[in-house]
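queue> pop job 88
queue> type: inverse folding (structure -> sequence)
queue> payload:
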């Protein structure tokens, strides 16, 4: 097993609240986790260096994985859970997500099969919704309801059949602003017409009454779902909201606890549509369990986030209807291929769909020569 930390280029930037925005071209670092079998098969995943640190690999991941059958994911989950009980700070859920993703990539390579087929092979392509970046104050950006409407028309012309708005959030001045969120949703509905899917993922800490006001407007504007308007630790608030709003409430996105916390959301009727992702759900393995659980309860489960592991999840189960393509912004070229990749995994077709990758594994085309030539450190 190895982690290669390498230099590469980024064209977006992240604000102090963690929201992504357009940015100038800048140098950044990424990490490539590789897990190799004694037969020489390699599973890989790209990740943030902070979650693939030397101490995490040497003290926790290595001791569990090295010398074990790489297909024994359930056994690893137990061993990691024991380590996390007292050392969660040393071994965050995001780190385990990357390890699980690399193990699935490895399984795909070993069997010569794309991961989405190993997960269940539910579909060969999926509708993509255009997921916008949060609002900003940039010229030509997303600084007003009209900007969202103009961008929505452009996205519809590119073939998308659904758009999810992320609206204005702190640390931006005057954000959040309930009235402006409602105005943006109304402007976009007006711009795309009635037969087009729209979703809202606004400020994540509205109060119950603010979320209810917003939700009732979404009912009027016929939105497809209402995402993370309140703190997701309050199950009761989500139940309170779901009972009063006709628009399906979806969640949880960021709550830790993998499939176990999502089971609680189901039995507490806290949402209408369940949500999970390869990163926020603790990896592909627990996310797949969540999707199967949703199916058992007759619920949809939409996958959070873009990229190869999330695309594989969408391809593996029929309880998700969409792939979240983004984050998109009028000033950002999402289709730009960063120098450490040979191609992007999720090109969108003129009909607004994305095809499942056909290569064995997760299908991420990493340029290994570039990684080696731009190495910062390896462990
Ligand atoms: O707050 C944001 O920037 C977005 O909500 C972001 O986290 C995005 O990944 C998301 O929620 N997508 O559904
Ligand atoms: Mg979201």
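queue> result:
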């Amino acid at each position: 097993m190895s982690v290669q930390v390498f230099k590469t280029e980024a064209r977006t930037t992240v604000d102090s609240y963690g929201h992504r925005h357009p940015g100038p071209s800048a140098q950044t670092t990424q990490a490539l986790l590789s897990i190799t079998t004694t037969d020489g098969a390699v599973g890989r995943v790209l990740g943030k260096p902070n979650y693939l640190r030397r101490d995490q690999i040497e003290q926790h991941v290595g001791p569990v994985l090295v010398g074990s059958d790489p297909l024994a994911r359930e056994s690893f989950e137990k061993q990691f859970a024991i380590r996390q009980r007292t050392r969660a700070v040393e071994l965050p859920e995001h780190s385990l997500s990357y390890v699980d993703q690399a193990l699935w990539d490895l399984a795909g390579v070993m069997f010569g099969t794309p991961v989405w087929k190993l997960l269940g092979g539910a579909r060969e392509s999926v509708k993509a919704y255009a997921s916008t970046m949060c609002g900003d104050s940039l010229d030509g950006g997303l600084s007003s309801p009209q900007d969202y409407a103009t961008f929505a028309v452009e996205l519809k012309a590119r073939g998308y059949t659904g758009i999810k708005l992320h609206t204005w959030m702190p640390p931006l001045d005057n954000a959040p602003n309930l009235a402006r969120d409602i105005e943006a949703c109304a402007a976009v509905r007006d711009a795309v017409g009635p037969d087009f899917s729209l979703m809202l993922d606004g400020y994540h800490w509205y109060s119950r009454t603010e979320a209810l006001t917003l939700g009732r407007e979404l009912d009027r504007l016929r939105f497809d779902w209402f995402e993370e308007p309140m703190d997701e630790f309050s199950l009761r608030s989500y139940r309170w909201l779901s009972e009063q709003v006709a628009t399906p409430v979806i969640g949880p996105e960021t709550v830790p606890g993998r499939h176990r916390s999502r089971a609680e959301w189901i039995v507490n009727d806290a949402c209408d549509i369940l949500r999970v992702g390869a990163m926020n759900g603790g990896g592909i393995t627990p996310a797949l369990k969540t999707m199967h659980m949703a199916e058992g309860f007759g619920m949809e489960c939409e996958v959070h986030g873009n990229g190869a592991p999330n695309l594989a999840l969408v391809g593996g189960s029929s309880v998700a209807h969409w792939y979240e393509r983004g984050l998109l912004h009028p000033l950002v070229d999402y289709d730009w291929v960063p120098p450490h990749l040979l191609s992007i995994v999720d090109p969108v077709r003129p009909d607004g769909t994305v095809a499942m990758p056909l290569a064995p594994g997760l299908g991420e085309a990493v340029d290994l020569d570039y990684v080696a030539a731009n190495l910062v450190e390896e462990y």
